[in-house]
Amino acid sequence: MSDSEYNIVDLLKESNRLHALSALNVLDTAPEPYYDKITRLVSLKFDAPVALVSLVDKDRLFFKSAYGTKAVEVDRANTFCSVAITKHGVLVVPDALQDDRFLQCPVVCNAPYARFYAGAPIILSSGICIGTVCFIFPEPYYDFSKNDQIFLEGMADMAASHFDLRLSRDLVDPMNLLPMASVAVSVINDLAYIKEHSISAYSIELFGSTRISELLVVLGEHKIFTLLQAERLIIEKILPNNNSYMFSLGVDRFLCIVGGLSRDQSFILADRMEVALSKVIDLESTPIINVSKIGLAYSDNMDVQPGGLIRMAIAGMGSPRKNFASSTLYSEEGENNIKRRLSIIHDFPGSFKEGNFSIQYQPKINLKNNKVAGAEALIRWDHKTLGRISPDEFIPLIEDTSFIYQLSEWSIKQVTNDLDAWEKQDIHLNISINMSAKNFQKDTWVETLKKNNALLDKANNICFELTETAAFSNIQAVSETIDQLNRIGIKTHIDDFGTGHCTLTYISQLNVSAIKLDQQFVMPMVNSPKDKMIVEHTCHLAKALGFELIAEGVETEAIKDILKEFGVDYVQGFLYSKAMNVDDFNHWIKNYNM
Ligand code: C2E
Ligand code: MG
Ligand code: MG
Fold first, then answer.
1. Tally of CB atoms within 10 A around 490
2. Which residue's CA is the closest to the ligand 1 atom numbered 12?
């Protein structure tokens, strides 16, 4: 082996060593009784004034335990420990003053003027040496026996086992107590290559990141911990006794690996998981309903790539956000959904700059006089390759990015321009614009709006729609924003009412002016007495609380008549028209008013 090759091997070894040390998360941590006991024992055994558990970092020695000195770290250069970690066995330096390597060593030149050193390497189970258990002595010492070395090595082994434990602790998710999914790779390899089993990989999401964060806030960490244990047990009970393993993919996400199932059996198991997880859990008197999604990937091909299989299982869960309680079983479709979602987010800024967005208007009719009161502005995206993408699909994705602010600003600009044009034609309309929860939660938003003179000028003709779920998400911030908007003359309506968890009494804490009943209750009213009753009850209560009432999804005369009877003020729906571009809308109004 040439010199340069040797150096590269050494460099790699050192880099792995530093990586392993950093993965331990032990540098710069406080002393711990376990390591302190080791240094105390070493000091007692050899009557040593200083004993250390010394970890060799890139440029320094960090002392996890230091008996007999207050030092926490020293420079690594010229130290005994930096040599000790490169040796097999214990490094014994009987008299440092007789050893050229250590003449510059700080503890030799300065107090405590060490003459003797003995250090045993701390070697992790991975074979990587991270430091030493060592001691120094102020006098030369030539009688350090084989038994003494064995004792010191034993102490270093004990330290190493404890550091190893630390590593395996970090491989367990502290919330659900399952091993991390990274461990699954070797399990899949064992099952597929050694046992020659088929592999079924299930990815299970119990609540979703938004809901789990809400639950954490409402129920607290302790209850969530209990809840996750309960959910884990539910799954464990269903899994076959042999060749089944569970891992953590995140707080409320599990990965199950099962070996040896037929394709049909693996689908049956997914169904059983779904049924079991859909049961209500009584958590210390709080009923919890989860909205789990399950993704399944199956392979009976011995060439299985563990990482790819896990990724496919996760991709199998990919279903539209509004689609609750759905388990999407393994499909390429799931993976394609993810790809589509990613490309929607990725393409947004470019497409936005290219001007591929437009606003359409859906008329809103006043039921008292049957006149057009205004319209709802609905955004449209005509994507170059994907065609028209529904706002229901792209808004939730864009809402996770800061692009949503640009989009809201743009919608406001389009609407104020159109209002200007209508005003010039003596057409007076009230336009509602859908706004994201993100806007309502941003405390500087209304300040920015105040600088928009075109908007302030049209404030009385504009209202913002905020979905019920969004209003629920951060009540304090949302409520303040609504008040600020009222002060500049812009009213807020609650959109999609009935789809979230809010009651009207809860909404009544917000200074909103109108409630918009969701189409999902309005549309089935004719055939469903239950839905009709819900709408009737909601209408009466909303009126009693002083809200104006709007209903969307009005497709038939029959529904319009019922809504009128219930006291609804405004209606919107295909009975009148779908959303139209501004020219068609202008045309439509002229015809409607004739
Ligand atoms: P939304 O605000 O509840 O809008 C009503 C949706 O119902 C619209 O879908 C509308 O075209 C549709 N609709 C109206 N009448 C009927 C009917 O009689 N029958 C049926 N089947 N559907 C009807 P659209 O335009 O696809 O918008 C979907 C959602 O996307 C909107 O729901 C709104 O939440 C969001 N959205 C649309 N434009 C914007 C926007 O500019 N900004 C934001 N943040 N969200 C927007
Ligand atoms: Mg709306
Ligand atoms: Mg709506």
1. 22
2. 553
